[in-house]
Amino acid sequence: MSAPESETLKPKYGPKVLQLREMIAQPVFAAFCAGGVAGAVSRTVVSPLERLKILFQIQSVGREEYKLSVGKGLAKMWKDEGWRGFMRGNGTNCIRIVPYSAVQFGSYNFYKKFFEPTPGADLTSLRRLICGGAAGITSVFFTYPLDIVRTRLSIQSASFAALGQGPRTKLPGMWGTLITMYKTEGGILALYRGIIPTVAGVAPYVGLNFMTYELVRKYLTPEGDKNPSAVRKLAAGAISGAVAQTCTYPFDVLRRRFQINTMSGMGYQYKSIFDAVRVIIAQEGVKGMYKGIVPNLLKVAPSMASSWLSFEVTRDFLLTLRAEPQDL
């Protein structure tokens, strides 16, 4: 046998490389990794609107600092804090959203396997809703402490006069805030404050998001094709995000309010979820339950569109890493 012929018979990759590629190309693992990428991309794209939404949400009646239009609110944020104001809390948010999104997408694909009538079969809308809800709850429990810290970081530099802090004051970072909350606000329970309204909102939100996306994506896929174009994927992501956010938005307001319920100077101290709903509606009207929805809807389209597109692109790439016969 000649040297060139013997070289062609050698495996292209070693056994350890092939094992790694096979593991990465598993559908659940690929979805887990792609979900992390999707979360980081989508949150960074809309970071200024995400922070502005939070500042709108946490204002009680009588507060005027951010009683502004979206454009003026963004201008005030830039004037007070500059570029860092737009990105304030985004580092923590990405640290949170990467595992959050990874667990969410990965667990959704995991739960789908239990609801498939036969392997690879399509799920009904109800089963997609249930799988998405379960995935949302799973991801919340894994990453909630980082979410509450992100909320604190988002508001503590935002020139709320009653907070007694100006934008030039040196502020604690992610770990400093986390440790302070743990030591002074009740230990581990402090890091899960507001989780009940969060779970109540996340379960239907994620369920609706996954269900709507897959339905719209299927509708937008040309007959005879397996995948729609990138533009149609972006459209499906934007539609699914808008539907899910609008239906579950009041839970998001409650979540933010409870996350800062123990901070002084905010103008409220709610005793329970029902007390919070009663007080907000009595003092701020029904529209109080939808504070911040305008910047939220403005961010939904680019956020969910970029999230779903980056997820599918990354997942499809990872699935191609599965070893082929010529690699062996």
Please, could you describe this protein's structure?
The protein is mostly helical and 328 residues long. 69% of the residues lie in helices and 0% in strands. It has a single domain, classed as Mitochondrial carrier fold. It is found in: Mitochondrion inner membrane.
Tell me briefly what this model is.
This protein is mainly alpha-helical and 328 residues long. The protein has one domain: Alpha/alpha barrel (Mitochondrial carrier fold), CATH 1.50.40.
Q: What would the keywords be for this entry?
A:
328 residues, mainly alpha, Mitochondrial carrier fold, 69% helix
Give me the secondary-structure topology.
Layout (H helix, E strand, L loop, with lengths): L2 H6 L6 H10 L2 H19 L1 H11 L12 H12 L1 H5 L2 H26 L9 H31 L18 H11 L10 H26 L9 H30 L13 H12 L8 H27 L9
Helix pairs in contact: 3-7, 3-13, 4-13, 7-8, 8-10, 10-11, 11-13
The termini sit apart by 20 Å
- Determine Rg (CA atoms, Å): 23 Å
Shape: globular
Largest sheet: none
Query: Total number of β-strand segments?
Result: 0
Structural class of the secondary elements?
mainly alpha
The number of domains: 1
- The assigned CATH architecture is Alpha/alpha barrel
